[in-house]
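Render this sequence as a predicted structure.
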Amino acid sequence: MTPGIDYNPYYETYISLTGDAHIVDQLIQGLDATTAFFKSIQPEKHDYQYEAGKWTPKEVLLHIIDTERVFSYRALQFARAENVVIKGFDQDEFAGNARPVNRSMENLLEEYKAVRQSTIAMVKSFADTTLHRRGEASNSQLSVLAALTIIAGHEIHHANIIKERYL
């Protein structure tokens, strides 16, 4: 586990993909890299599934957006309140109800950028000590910094999967 932040070991997959830069810098870098990456995907691949039942690149992008909203909310709750306990979320249920097939990649990227800019603005408002506040999510301790770092690593993880299996 990364020292100084609390999280369930499940999230090490995402946290291990991030660097040592301040979390605001990581989120800004991710905004640029993720936007450029999804723009680079050829339109004929936007709704492509490499295997039956797997998400398309558009579904993956919407999953990244939804997950950022969930973890950003967790970070906000832990930053502002005491003794917070938040239930988990079912990513497959979210994906099943999202239905991005009728949305363009450009529309999804607009939403992604708005969500990311909102997250960055929120994090910039936090004192460094706020980053180490914590609460409970999905039956595990989670710090504000861990929630934010998961956001940064999660999008890298999914971009890597798309590069390996879709392109």
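Summary. The chain has one domain: 9-165. The helical segments are 12-15, 23-40, 57-80, 91-98, 105-124, 144-165.
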